[in-house]
Amino acid sequence: MRVQTEIARQQLEIIAYQEKDRRKENDKAYLKAQLVMKYISERENMFILDVKNVGKAKARDIRILIDGKPAYEYPPIGYLIRKKDIPSELGPGTTWSPQLLYTVGIEAKFDIKIEWQDDSGELGSFEQRLIPVASP
Fold first, then answer.
1. Is residue 16 one of the residues assigned to a domain?
2. How far apart are CA 14 and CA 16, in angstroms?
3. Is residue 9 a part of any domain in this protein?
């Protein structure tokens, strides 16, 4: 009987931890980014930065750095996007997709760092070197 009671107590602890993890997961936003290249013609491609929230919660206070600078100061974005155009929030499943303007001499690859807040109370972060991915 004592062994069964101990097993039951351990099972309840496991269930409680699983429920806590599930609730925490529902409070988290997960942002990811990719650089998409769309073929337009033999002489022209269009580049788009896709930033998507694949989490279950809203991302707030979003900060995007490209090669260590705010995104609106990065020339291929800065030519087209102003600081106020960069979203401060992204809901679950939503994407921000600005077109980038690349000119001769600017490589279509960069380091990106995205930071945000969500309901979990933890600072979220995504950091990666982006190179173009061809769009289907």
1. no
2. 5
3. no
